[in-house]
Sequence to fold (525 residues):
Amino acid sequence: MPDDAQNIDPTKPSAEGAPRDHAAAVTPPPRLPRPVPIRRPQPPHTIAGLATSASIAVIATSSSVAKFDLAELGDADLAADVTALAQGYNLDVGMPLVSVLVSAATALGSLVRIEIGGAWIEAPVLWGMMVAPPGSRKTAMAALPKSLLGTIAEDEKTEWIQRREAAAREKRKLEIEWSIYDADCRRAVRKDFPYPEPPARRPDAVVVPIRPGIVIEDSTIEEITERLAGSPRGILAVSDEASTMLARGRNTRALMLQATSAGSLRVGRISRESRELTSFSVSVLTGTQPDRVAGFIGGEDDGLAARFLWVWVSETPSPRIARVPLKLDRLLEVIARLRAMGKGEELVVIPMSEEGIDRLERAMGVWRAEGRKRGGLVQSWYEKAPGHASRLALVLEVLVQARAGEKLPTVISVARIEAAISLIDRLFAPAMAMVAMHIGQDRGERIRSNLIQHLGNNHVERFRARDLRRTHTRLFGTPGQFEDALRALEADGVLSRADRQPGAQGRSPGDYLVNRAKLPAAIVS
Fold:
């Protein structure tokens, strides 16, 4: 007997007023439609009707907060290299792109700079920050520069060994000459001979070269300053967890805030003499998890967040193993050429074209307005966006030039400025907005935001709540927190129940329909 029939009282009249018959057949409730399974992530997509000015509220790819079209770089070879890395590591293009750009900036070095107008110069010092959940290959992307710059580092280490051995031989030679001179002086005293001429140099005048190191993982002040003394063109500090390098309260953090200007610096040391650095130039590539961003930045804006080019990855991609070996030969060759192009004794300043200055000036007006509208960390970041764009344009221009030879460009073109502005607007600024929003949200707001992003990124039209939460536990928290987010979106009209029909009995399976027309408003709110 159907469950519904057990609750029928045969003594009560039917709807037509006639007494019920015990033998009467009970009509079963209508069969409910089977739930439609959750759709798998689809290729990049932007929700229709979503505002694109400044690209702040854009939901785009299945794995990151915003999709940058690599064609906007204006460099087909660079786009191909980044695409190969993204496919090989199963990543969105944002992480390998920022890793390659930071590596290229480090290879070029701080002796090549860009001049914007008459009184503004920037060095190619880039800080990249990848915010992504566990399993997103942050470690692999943070380690990528060691592969790209490894050959250069080995060559410079070999050169350093040769120069050190030559200095040691010269020092030993001078020590012998001075020993002979001292003996001659003593003999002159005993026999009343004329005093001999001393050697031209003393042994301590020989400069023993300091060991270079382009990429470092030890972020102590001592290690940073020692490697900079050996590599005055600049170094790259890498770490797969930002808090180990730049946690609030560490002395390294206060020192590193000065590293993007590539100015001179005197670093005092207790155990040894102070170190004079002609160019304190340190690029950074690191990452962290979304839940650690607030603790890393801290409660006060000390300018650290504004110095980073942020890449925000919301979800890990579907598992996939690359079948084709990843080839980096072309990228390695370009990085080596960049190193050769930036090698020299004198500072080289490359001017930005007049068209580029005009274009950057217009972008600066837009960024200033957007920053004032948003305030807080986002405003601080937008204030530094012109510097970010200038340094990016320099790196992009020299990358293009490096494929043709080892001669530096004579001007930074407006095409590279356009590419840099696109990077700011479509990749780094939206990620910075996510950082600020994440810091300002409590746990419930973040779960709601994660749910909205997941629904938009993956083109979900219908889903079963229980299955979705179990598949993405890190995004959606506890069952109670997830239920609160569902109810909030249901109240906003973004979700509606798909499993309730008149007369249905029993436990609800928890199916929902998504009103995609209302998703953009939910994102902005």
Summary: The chain has three domains: 1-43+441-525, 61-149+214-440, 156-205.
